[in-house]
Design a protein that fits this description.
With 148 residues, this protein is an all-alpha fold. The protein has a domain of 80 residues. It is 66% helix and 0% strand. The chain is built from six helices and no strands. Helix 3 runs antiparallel to helix 4 and helix 5 packs antiparallel against helix 6. 24% of the residues are buried.
Amino acid sequence: MGFGAGIKQEASKVPQIIAAFGACFGAFGLGTALAWTSPALPVISENSDGECADEDGECYWDNPNDAMTADEASWATGLFSIGCVLSSLVTGILMEYIGRKWTMIAMVVPFVAGWVILTMAGPLELTDAWWFYTGRLLTGSLQASANC
């Protein structure tokens, strides 16, 4: 008989379920952050005529002058990848000191903060493009830690 033979152990499945949901939500969060610009930019940026309107003719902002220009929209799109590059440096250092699991947990904080900024920009009328830039940089931080 081998070591532990004949001993029946009932391990709790709750930690396994939590870990599985965590992995799934991480992938879901990364996918939504990557795809955010496709539905959002037509609504918050001006069209080629310089008007703030989506295909339904509605403007997201109360003041159409608050719409993002094409340059601002392209920066908001690209800053996600720049956030990934910058956070990969932080992720590498954190993994050395606190380990992979705690690094992934810690990197959720800027990711959630980025989504809070992106989702609250409209209701709080934060129309300056810097709010969107900050939100995209922070949401990009998850990509580096999710792939570690």
